[in-house]
Inverse folding.
């Protein structure tokens, strides 16, 4: 029965055409510009979601010296809505949460390189103490090339329904997505046109609330590039960690586009089967080393992925490999090595869980 349902769903794949615009846009995601210590299993380690100002400056200098064009969020919005063009090698800089050290460390560096950036703040973390951005600092930043977006109300995992009924879950989403946008616009007197999902979690159900709220774009932390055809509410961002080396930073920017025609599960799908059969059909593979075409789920390469060059279909069955996915969100990629020795990929996200039975109005 499971197989029949998956086959039925596969027939209704979304088909993607990547012929219109070949520009790849990388969106970088930063958090904290002061490296603090956290405890993991009783040991103190550097906070992985941080970066030293010195390393941040090295990355900005690399962008400047290697022909990358850091664009504003407004420029990107206009591009995605066919109102303007963007340059080649476009990059966006985004910063989540709203720590005060953005003002102390990132602001002077970005100002030095004349780079715009977008800061995603959440309602309960704005002007909330000595470690958060104050309203005056936000005002100054907004007057000096920074744009602001919403990062929810309380920073929860939006796809986690817990024990809520469907009706309660929809109310929860509205409170986390619609209400903080209204609050921030009223309090800051600036437009809040984009959102970044806490922990990068989204679904097609969440897309509906985001659209209802009036956001023009929304960003995950699925680590990959964007094209003009990327879903406006499933935009990818690559997180930069305390451990990210300059070579790794360079590799992020140089990843090439792998073109998919069809795939299952779909982007933002919620499925109940914990042992799904993953499917992806490529547009073409003439520039790829076909033995390297694999699925990668949650950063684990599925070496038993089966690729058929005749049908250009890639398959992997969790059931046949006697494996199971945990409930929750899963990042998924199709990866390959090109004949030019470059890395190629296409990435998205799906959820193992229970879809809503009621309609979102």
């Amino acid at each position: 029965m499971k197989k029949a349902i998956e086959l039925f769903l596969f027939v209704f794949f979304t088909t993607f055409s990547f012929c219109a615009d070949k520009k790849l846009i990388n969106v970088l995601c930063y958090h904290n510009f002061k490296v603090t210590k956290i405890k993991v299993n009783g040991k103190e380690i550097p906070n992985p979601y941080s970066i030293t100002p010195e390393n941040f400056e090295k990355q900005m200098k690399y962008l400047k010296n290697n022909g990358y064009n850091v664009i504003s969020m407004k420029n990107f919005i206009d591009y995605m809505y066919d109102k303007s063009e963007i340059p080649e090698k476009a990059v966006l800089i985004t910063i989540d949460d709203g720590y005060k050290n953005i003002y102390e460390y990132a602001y002077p560096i970005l100002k030095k390189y004349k780079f715009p950036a977008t800061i995603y703040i959440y309602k309960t973390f704005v002007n909330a103490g000595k470690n958060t951005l104050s309203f005056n600092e936000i005002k100054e930043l907004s007057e000096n090339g920074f744009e602001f977006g919403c990062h929810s109300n309380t920073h929860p995992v939006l796809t986690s329904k817990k024990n809520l009924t469907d009706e309660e879950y929809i109310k929860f989403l509205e409170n986390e997505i619609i209400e903080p946008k209204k609050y921030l616009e009223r309090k800051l007197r600036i437009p809040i046109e984009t959102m970044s999902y806490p922990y990068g979690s989204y679904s097609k159900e969440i897309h509906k609330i985001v659209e209802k709220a009036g956001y023009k774009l929304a960003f995950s932390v699925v680590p990959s590039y964007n094209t003009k055809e990327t879903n406006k509410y499933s935009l990818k961002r690559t997180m930069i960690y305390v451990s990210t080396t300059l070579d790794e930073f360079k590799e992020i920017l140089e990843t090439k586009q792998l073109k998919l025609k069809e795939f299952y599960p779909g982007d933002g799908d919620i499925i109940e089967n914990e042992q799904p059969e993953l499917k992806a059909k490529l547009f073409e593979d003439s520039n790829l080393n076909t033995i390297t075409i694999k699925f990668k789920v949650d950063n684990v390469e599925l070496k038993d992925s089966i690729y058929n060059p005749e049908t250009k279909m890639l398959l992997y069955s969790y059931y046949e490999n006697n494996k199971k996915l945990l409930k929750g969100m899963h990042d998924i990629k199709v990866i390959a090595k090109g004949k030019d020795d470059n890395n190629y990929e296409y990435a998205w996200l799906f959820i193992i869980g229970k879809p809503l039975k009621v309609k979102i109005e």
